[in-house]
Amino acid sequence: MTDFSLALNEDQLTIQKWVHDFAETVVRPAAHEWDEREEFPYPIVEEAAKIGLYSFDFFANAMLGDPSGLTLVLALEELFWGDAGIGLSIFGSGLAAAGISGQGTPEQTMEWVPQCFSYENGKLGLGAYCVSEPDAGSDVSSLRTRAVYDEAKDEWVLNGTKAWITNGGIADVHVVVATVDPTLKSRGQATFIIGPDTPGFSQGQKYKKHGIRASHTAEVVLDGVRVPGSHLLGGKEKLDAKLARAREAGRTGDRQPAMATFEATRPAVAAMAVGVARGAYEEALRYAQERHAFGKAIIQNQSVAFMLADMATEIDAARLLVHRAAWLSRNGVYKNAEGSMSKLKAGRTAVWVTERAIQIHGGYGYTREYPVERMHRDAKIFDIFEGTEQIQQLVISRAISGLRIE
Ligand SMILES: Cc1cc2nc3c(=O)[nH]c(=O)nc-3n(C[C@H](O)[C@H](O)[C@H](O)COP(=O)(O)OP(=O)(O)OC[C@H]3O[C@@H](n4cnc5c(N)ncnc54)[C@H](O)[C@@H]3O)c2cc1C
């Protein structure tokens, strides 16, 4: 275990600058166009692939090769500073990769994670992590997508519909959480890989969204999808043992597969929110210095300057929680609430700061001419996905009280 320190090493400073340069020169200039087009920004993700930012190597090194846990959150803050919709298009595959590496065997991880971040012969390979359903978002224990084992063929047969899936239907690798034994609720769930061009698997409706509109979000439908036994993450023996323990004891220490993945990724999602907040704050600071009213720059009014002071303070507070959570997560002393605290604080900060940024821009901030309008729409997602604001509060309140708060 390394000591907790906020000091960044040379490698981290280099990566931070490298991602910032890409965000500033490639991502930010493209943000408005792809937000308006509401399409997955293939050319921009390809640019990220060409420089190695969209790659298995970068993901593996940032996730696993860094004992401090800070490299990934530093990179995500810079990328999302550039734009959240494009940022999520570049890092949406990360959740699938985290799901595979968290639940899969080393062999499964080596086979499938690189395919979530591939770029070969000018073609991008993407990943999607499919948990949510039309009637099961926060309540992950109520998933209806069913996986049944066909012993004669050593195949799993999956049926169901997944909702709100980032990269859903356009990904090459879909990681699907399904129920194997509904009577065991979350303890009866398992995770499966659906590879490219699998019969019975299709994209449903594509959602038209409030923000992060460059990012692709869609339903996916599984209609008699058959996958080989080897596509069950962790393997059948491990699943059978888990189900047997759950049936015997009525309860096990095994975590829901989706919950374990979300816990690991919360600081990363919180870092994205900090990036959006910082982007809007910097726009507002610059605007307040340039815009004149009543014969002086508007920042010379205490009420405007104090707004900026509060924005800067909130962003720093959120970042400190993110860095703490990232370090705890990487060093195995994560107790869950720290990750939820970081996401709760960062999501709220992004929404609040982006709203204040519009206020400082006055009427211009309410138009699409200035990026703070887009940033405010983008920020709201951080209160919703990977656990809503209320679900983070639930996790934290249970951790601090030791009680089953409902
Ligand atoms: C753009 C976008 C991308 C997404 N990407 C993915 C993805 O890639 N993969 C994936 O699996 N999912 C994804 N999601 C789904 C997302 O995780 C869910 O929308 C989220 O978990 C909330 O679920 P829900 O929409 O069903 O809301 P609900 O669970 O129905 O919640 C509705 C409201 O009730 C509140 N609530 C619910 N239960 C409780 C409770 N026990 N206590 C207090 N309040 C409660 C919630 O906080 C919320 O305010 C995405 C969603 C969006 C919008």
Jot down its keywords.
single chain; 406 residues; alpha+beta; Butyryl-Coa Dehydrogenase, subunit A, domain 1; Butyryl-CoA Dehydrogenase, subunit A, domain 2; Butyryl-CoA Dehydrogenase, subunit A, domain 3; three-stranded mixed sheet; 13 helices; binds flavin-adenine dinucleotide
Topology:
Elements: H1 10-37, H2 42-50, H3 56-64, H4 70-82, H5 84-91, H6 93-103, H7 106-116, E1 119-120, E2 123-124, E3 127-130, E4 146-150, E5 155-166, E6 173-179, E7 189-194, E8 201-206, E9 217-228, H8 236-249, H9 257-290, E10 292-293, E11 296-297, H10 302-330, H11 337-365, H12 371-379, H13 389-401
Helix pairs in contact: 1-4, 1-5, 4-5, 4-9, 6-7, 6-9, 9-10, 9-11, 9-12, 10-11, 11-12, 11-13
Q: Provide a count of the helices.
A: 13
The helix content is 40-55%
Q: Outline, from the CA principal axes?
A: globular
Kindly report the name of the CATH homologous superfamily of the largest domain.
Butyryl-CoA Dehydrogenase, subunit A, domain 3
The Cα radius of gyration reads 22 Å
Number of strands: 11
Q: State the domain count.
A: 3
Structural class: alpha+beta
> Strand arrangement, largest sheet?
4-5-9-8
Quaternary status: single chain
Give the termini separation: 35 Å
CATH class of the largest domain: Mainly Alpha
**CATH architecture annotation of the largest domain:** Up-down Bundle
Mean pLDDT: 94
Q: Largest sheet, described in full?
A: 4 strands, antiparallel
- Could you say which small molecules are bound to this protein? flavin-adenine dinucleotide
User: What fold name stands as the CATH topology of the largest domain?
Assistant: Butyryl-CoA Dehydrogenase, subunit A, domain 3
Low-confidence stretches: none
